[in-house]
Amino acid sequence: MDTPRPAGPDAQTPQPARWGAVAGIVGFLAIVELTSGILQGFYTPLMTDIARHLGIHDADVNWFEAAQLMVSALAVPLLASLGDIFGHKKMLLISAIVTAAASWAVVFSGSFTTFLIAWALQGFYAVWLPLEIAIVFSRARKLGVPGPMTRRAAGLLVGALEVGVIAGALAGGALIGVFDGNLALTMSIPAIATTGCIVAVAFGVPDDGDRNGAKIDSGGFGYLAVGLLLLTSGLSFLRINGPASVLVWGSMALGLAVLYLFYRHENKQKDPLIDFSVLFARSMWPVQLTAGLFGVSVLGAQIPMSTFARTDPAVNGYGLGLSASGVSVIIGAYVMALLLGALLFPVAARWAGTKRTLIAASFLVGIGYLLFLVQHGSLTVVLLNMVIAGIGSGALVAALPAAAAAAAPFHRTGMATGLTNAVKTIGGSFASAIFGLALIGQVAGAVSDGAAENFAAPLAGYMVVWAICGGTAIICALILFAVPRDALEDARS
Questions:
Q1: Where does the Major facilitator superfamily (MFS) profile domain start and stop, copy by copy (predicted)?
Q2: pLDDT per residue as tens digits for the range 225-250
Q3: Is residue 6 part of a domain?
Q4: Same domain, 349 and 391
Q5: 37 — alpha (psi -120 to 50), left (phi > 0) or beta?
Q6: Domain hosting residue 264, numbered range
C-alpha cells in the first residue's frame, strides 16, 4: 500500500499538454459542486427564521444538521463503493436525483418531523465530491499523470463549491427579504438548482468505464447503519435525559459493539464495504482520521456561528445582533477564505509537498477557532478568526480526497475518496449533536432561571464549541506527522 505506484510510459509528459483531456469533464463537475455549494450556503442565514417558523429552540436546529450528517455517513461509503462496482457516474446521477427530491420536500415541509426527514435526505450530496475525484483520477490515471491532475481538479472543484456557498449564502440572506419573509418561496431556489444539476450529470459527465467486479456488501452496510444509529441515539438520549440515563450509555455501548462486529465482518469479506487493510495502511489512516476530526469544525460549527451572530448583545450580553443579511457577510468572508485555501492547495502541495500542506492547513484551522476563546466581541475580530480558519479548511477540503486517492489502490479509489467524506460526516454528526447539547446549556451548565423563555443559547456553550473545533484541528496537525515521507506524492508529478 505504501509502495509508490510504477510510473506509466507517459510519466514524463508535461501536465499542461494533458489538461485538455479532463478540462471538459471538470467543467461539468464544477456545475455539480456549484450546486453543492448553494445547498451548503443558502440555508445558513435562514436558520433562525426556520427555527422561529417551526417554533423550536435555536439549539434544536443542530438536530437537522446531525440527521443530515448521519444520512451522509451512511450513504457516502455505500454509494462510493457502488461507484467502484457499477460506475461512478451512475452513482453520481442517483445521488443527484435523491438530493433534488429532498430539496423540493424541504420547500413543502410544514412540521418539525417532515422538515427533519427531508433535510436529512439532502445529505446524499456529500458523496458528490468523492465520486467526482474518482472520475477525474480514473481519467488522469489513463493519461499517466493522476497526482497533479487530480490535485488541480480538486482545487478547482472545491473552488466551484465555495463560489456556490458564497452565492447561496448571499442569496439566502437577501431573498428572504425580497420575498417578504416567504420561507417556502425562498427555499425553492436551491431546489431548482439541484434539479438542474441532474441535467449536468446526465448529459455532461461521461462514464469513466472503471469497474472492479466486486459484489455488494449488504451485511456490512447493515452493521454500519445499526452501529451508527445506536451511537447517535445515545447522544440524543444524553441531551433529552441527561448523563445519568442508562439509555445514554447503553445505546453507545451497543453501538460500539455493533461497529466491532462490523469490523470483524468486513475482514472476512472478499469485497468489503470498507477495506480495513486499505484504511489501516500507514499512508491512509492519518488522512482518514484527520478527515473525521476535521468534520467537527467544518460541518458542526456552521449553525452555531450563525446563531451566535444573530444573538442580540443588548439582551444577552454577547453576540453580534446581526440580521440574516448581516450573517451572510460573515459566511461570505469565511467561504471566500475557503475558496482561497482550495485554490492555494495545489500550488502549496507542488512547492512544499502534500503532507506539509495538510499539516499547515490543520494548524490554521486550530488557530482560527481557538482565537474565538479570547476575542469574539466585534464583527472585525469574528471575521478575522473565520478567515484564518477558512483558509486552512479550504485547503483540507480539497486535499483530503486527493490525498486518499493517491494512497489507495486503483480498484479502491472510490472507496478511499468516499471514506474521507464518510468519516468527515460522522465527525460532523457527533459534533453537531454535542454542540446542540452545549448550546442548550446542559454541558456548559449555563442555563439561567429564565431560559425557558429565552431562545438564545448560553455564551459558555459557544465557548465549548470553539474549544472543541480548535482542539480537534490541532490534533489533526499532530496526527499527520505520522504519514510516511513522500507517501502522498505521485511519482509522476
A1: 25-488
A2: 899 888 877 877 776 676 678 888 99
A3: no
A4: yes
A5: alpha
A6: 218-268
